[in-house]
Amino acid sequence: MSVDPGRIHFSSTHKPKPDPECGRCGDAESYHRIGGQCDFANAAGGWCACPKFQRKRNASRASTRRQAKSVERDWAEALGGRRVPAGVAAQQRQGDADVVSPNRILQVKHRAVPGWFNDGWDQANQAKTGTGKRALLCITTKGQSVARHYVVEERSEWLKWNGRDDYEE
Fold it and tell me: Of 108, 102, 141, nearest to 122 (Cα)?
């Protein structure tokens, strides 16, 4: 039995369905939809590559990076130090003894040392995991225009280095 399309009519309350949206980017304006995703997603094997979603995703990543840098900067400021270039962190992961912590070398004022020592020591302990090396924390302070270098070893003793190769307690 065939139905004549001219004889089919809808009630006055029938409303057409709204355009479906891409399940990832929510875009319903200009892309053909198949299975709940825009054609960009279908072409990319299910990953939405439409410009609207890419902008959202990139903005989110940039925001996360800015927030991480801000936290790092605040922490270093509170300790009287500075942020460290990425190359230093890479050297630390390779186990160079000169490098202080995984992400930062802090140049700290002498009066700030006691307040943040435990945090720095925890970082040094975390950095040594899996490297087979001892925890080592190096601190450079500058008081009365004389730089002083402190090295904290695993036995938690402060060692003062006076610019020579030997260490003194």
Answer: 102
